[in-house]
Amino acid sequence: MSLIRMITGFGLSLVLVGSTGCVSLAETPGEHFEKAMKRLAENCARHPPKPTDSACDPLKLKPADPLATEEGRFAHSIKIPNPLPEDSGYKPGMTPEQYFEHLCKTEAGEFIYKTVENVDGLYMMRPRREATDYELEHLYALEDPYGYTTGTSNEQVFGFVHPHGYQYIESPISEVKAPSWKKQYRDSSLSDSPPPGAKYARHFGFDARDMKSMKMEYDSFLKSRYGFTWRGISRPHDREMGIAGGELIIFELASTDVVAVRRGYIKSGHVKNLTGVWWLKGQVCSLGSGRAEYGGDDFILKAMKPVSAQGDHNGSR
Q1: Is the separation of the CB atoms in 25 and 5 below 8 Å?
Q2: What was the pLDDT predicted at 177?
Q3: CA distance linking residue 45 with residue 278, whole number of Å
Q4: pTM, 2 dp
Q5: Do β-strands 109-112 and 258-267 pair in parallel, antiparallel, or remain unpaired?
């Protein structure tokens, strides 16, 4: 076995070359992240930030807690027909690239157990909130970087509600409001406060041309028969290798029977920023739909066929 020393822009990398291929002994994304956070903590201790300085804010971030909310606990309780194996297939000496390729090949994919026709609307059970830049460069702060969608939950509905999509999308009432500058481009109903007893928000009416055509109303009951949610995948070796996985699950609300599952992985690392991580530019498993956020929307539309949305629609039940 020969020893090759490689000098890269990220420092010294040692690679052992033998009959089984290449095994990298380079610093892993997890090791790089821990060292970067340690340096930041030491610097912030020496030079405490001013109240208006956010440079030390990454130190306040903690690993995501998937079970911190009711929606999260429910998402992780769902039993799917193709559960993950207990053994991820990681072998000591694997490089992040080798492990990522293995996960994409053996675990990622779109699994549609049945398609449903003439769906007028869906329940978006676990709307994603908009991540901060510090969270996007943190190795552990986001539960599911793979499926993360840019924009707030209110913005995500524009990808589903339109003349060739669903007539409405329902979601839990969000405490996050759109920035004030957006109000001039949105219908006033999107800024209304929920009445007593309301549990859900329903978006409807978007004509795919004028953003103000999207309307919202509150209700104490759901109209949807089906819904979708998401959950992150947490197993040993993934994050320290700069890899994060996630599952998008479509199910029947009354029975919780699973209709379809989309699973994928994203890999980050060796980015020229503080932590070496930037999830928005990560490499994702190729499922034929590009970045995860677009593929997720397409996947839902593929399994849940929208009813023709031509003609007027009254959002009220």
Answers
A1: no
A2: 72
A3: 25
A4: 0.86
A5: antiparallel
Question: Quick check: 282 and 266 in contact, CB under 8 A?
Answer: yes
Tokens of 226: 């089906």
Q: Partners of 263 in the beta sheet?
A: 109, 247
What's the pLDDT tens digit per position in 16-69?
333 333 334 579 999 999 999 999 999 999 999 998 999 999 999 999 999 999
**Of 301, 313, 315, whose CA–CA distance to 219 is shortest?**
315
Which residues, 6 or more positions from 123, have their beta carbon under 8 angstroms from its beta carbon?
169, 170, 171, 200, 222, 224, 226, 227, 228, 253
β partners of residue 3: 16
Query: Exposure of 267 by Cβ count < 10 A (0-12 exposed, 13-18 middle, 19+ buried)?
Result: buried
Which token pair is 269? 């690392």
> Could you give the count of Cα atoms lying within 13 Å of 276 in the half-sphere of its Cβ?
22
User: For the residues of 219-260, what is the DSSP string, one character each?
Assistant: ESS---SEEEEEEEE--TTTGGGTEEEEEEEEEETTT--EEE
Rg (CA), the chain: 22
Nearest to 101 by CA among 296, 283, 262: 283
Joined together, the tokens standing for residue 69 give 């909310």
Three-state SS letters, 105-133: HHCCEEEECCCEEEECEEEECCCCCCCCH
**Paired residues of 172 in beta bridges:** 200
Per-residue pLDDT band for 314 (boundaries 50, 70, 90) equals very low
Q: Which of 313, 305, 268, 290 is nearest to 30 (CA)?
A: 268
DSSP 212: G
Residue pointed to by tokens 């924009």: 151
> Per-residue pLDDT tens for 125-143?
999 988 999 999 999 999 9
Degrees to nearest 5, angle at CA 66 with 62 and 68: 80
